[in-house]
Amino acid sequence: TTKSGNQIRLLDEVDIITGVSGGSFTALAYGLYGEELFDIYEKRFLKRDVQGELVARVLNPVNWPALSSTGWGRSDVAAQLYDEILFNGATFDDLDRAGGPAIAVSATELSTGSRLVFLQQNFDVMCAELGPFKLSRAAAASSAVPVVLSPITIDNYGGSCGYHEPEWLRQFTDTHEPPRPAGRLLKRLQELRELDDAEEDRYFHLVDGAVSDNLGLRGVLDILETFEALRGAG
Hints:
This protein is α+β, with helices and mostly antiparallel strands. It has 11 helices and 5 strands. Strands 1, 2, 3, 4 and 5 form a 5-stranded mixed β-sheet that branches.
């Protein structure tokens, strides 16, 4: 209850939701459907034998030619299933239009171990647009347990668009003594710089986000410590 006597819920005050691994499904679906999710999620996903359906598709001979190719794997089969039963073809553009809290789900880039968060500012480094990217593929990447599921492969165009780091970062990168809270920010910047070279890494292979961030809290800490560093820089 507010001072004026109005009733509000804690959920109404949430501005950002992070998700990793299995939690990415709930985060993305809530961002897309809002409170409608509470009516449909249990039947369409939580109590559905998703694992059984996925195994059946992998064992179906119809899918074997695609699964034996270099550009398609078990996680692509999974993404297709997630799209049919939960996301209905929705993309990050649809998520943005839904107008809910910001949703930040993450995966792990297999070759570098870097965390890749599905936010446009991170895709800017790769010279790519996040908007048309399907939510089902993001969820599949975030939950692609190594060995059990194959990586999700995406193109990297980094270095092809003249990307420059934001101006506000210079007060941390152009000094020998950045504010102490900027340490996490600079570490994250180093991770992002590893993504900015398409000549060296033409493709990214994404696996379970829990490999690089088991609790999905590093993104929240990044945001909080960035604001703290900005305040410290004055």
